[in-house]
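Entry 12.
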Amino acid sequence: VNDVVVHSDGSIWFTDPIYGFDAGFRSRPRLPRQVYRFDPARGSVRAVADGFGRPNGICFSPDERIVYVTVTDWIHRDGTTDDFCVSYM
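Predicted 3D structure (C-alpha cells):
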C-alpha cells in the first residue's frame, strides 16, 4: 500500500504500486496495480480503478465527487512525461 485517503462514509481508498518490489526489498505483489476501496463495515476490498502502471498519490475533491490519482509510470528518466488520461469510476 502506498497512499491512503479516508472518505467521509468511512471507506478507505488506497493505491498499491510496486516500488518495494522494484527496489528489491518487498516480495512480489499479491494485488494488481490498481486503486482499491476498503469498506471497514463489511470487511471487503474491491478495485475501483485499474489500468495504471504505478498508481501513487490519491485524494478526493473537496465535495468528494472526484478521486484524483497520480501515476508516476508516465514520468520517464529524462524528465519527459506522457499525456494524462481521465478515468471514470
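Annotation: Residues 26 and 61 are 32 Å apart (CA to CA). Helices lie at 19-23.
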